[in-house]
Amino acid sequence: MTVAEALNASGLEAREARILLAAATGFSQAAAIAFPERPLPAESATRFAEFAARRRDGEPVAYILGEQEFYGLRLTVNPAVLIPRPETELLVELALEREFRTVADLGTGCGAIALAIKHERPAGRVIGVEASAAALELARRNAVRLGLEVDWRHGRWCEPLGGERCELIVANPPYVAEGDPHLAALAYEPASALVAGRDGLDAIRAISAQAPAFLAGGGWLLVEHGIGQDARVRELLEHAGLHEVRTWPDLAGIARVSGGRR
Q: Per-residue confidence at 199, pLDDT binned at 50, 70, 90?
């Protein structure tokens, strides 16, 4: 079987097929395009067929590969954690626009946000909070592999912060409503990292209520949310006593992050 035959038989979108073929064979994606007549070793062909079958069943490419790139960092991922999305890089960019000595990332998952901030601000103290022990262990492993030092803490939202005060708190919490039709396409990812009550705002309610007590004077809380939730999230932040409350759009123009200052 040749490269072209394997790709054509995969039943996958061309880009995804090339990514999985590269992982299965060690060929570069460029080589797959440039040399479609190249024969595939039997072992590589079998591995690629297995990858393609998993993808056709709906498993995300990131889980098949066991990794995902985020803010220039290659992170290990598995079904214990949500796959980092490109739109969440806005949260990192907004964090890096602010001055801080200590920043806490609530619901850190695989550590994507915390590690990206630490990579860009090595002198800053970064705390990563996660309720899932399995996710927290994966975040720790990512930190070790990347050589980045983060203070990892097990618990829900602000509870593990104790009596500390942070100049910045960031969070990409669950914000999908129960019964949302989009959940069907996310079946492989952990529901606990996606779903937050009937309106999708339970986690953001908890964070907005807790976070001000852990912010230093003038400190910022920045929270990612879903499409159409920005007005309600701003209300929650204002009700929590935060000032300068506003919303920022992602590259697609979708209201994606809201925040306020203590």
A: very high
Tokens at 52, concatenated = 């393609």
The domain made up of 67-261 has a fold known as Rossmann fold (3.40.50)
Give the three-class secondary structure for 169: strand
Please give the Cα distance from 172 to 194 (Å, whole number).
Answer: 10
According to the model, what pLDDT value does residue 51 have?
97
Assess whether pLDDT exceeds 90 at residue 22.
yes
Task: Please answer whether residues 43 and 32 qualify as being in contact, where contact means their C-beta atoms are separated by less than 8 angstroms.
Answer: no
Task: Classify residue 252 as exposed, middle or buried by CB count within 10 Å of its CB (0-12, 13-18, 19+).
Answer: exposed
Cα gap 23→27, rounded to integer Å:
8
φ/ψ (deg, to 5) at 258 = -125, 150
Tell me the three state secondary structure of residue 126.
strand
Of all helices (H) and strands (E), which one includes residue 96?
A: helix 89-96
Q: Which of 214, 211, 215, 219 is nearest to 239 (CA)?
A: 211
All structural domains of the chain with their residue ranges: 3-57, 67-261
Q: How confident is the model at residue 36 (pLDDT cuts 50, 70, 90)?
A: confident
Helix axis angle, 112-120 relative to 89-96, nearest 10°? 40
Task: List helix spans (H) across 121-229.
Answer: 133-146, 202-210
Torsion sign across C-alpha atoms 181, 182, 186, 189: negative
Task: State the pLDDT at residue 31.
Answer: 76
Structure tokens at 162: 């104790």
The secondary structure element, H or E, covering residue 252 is none
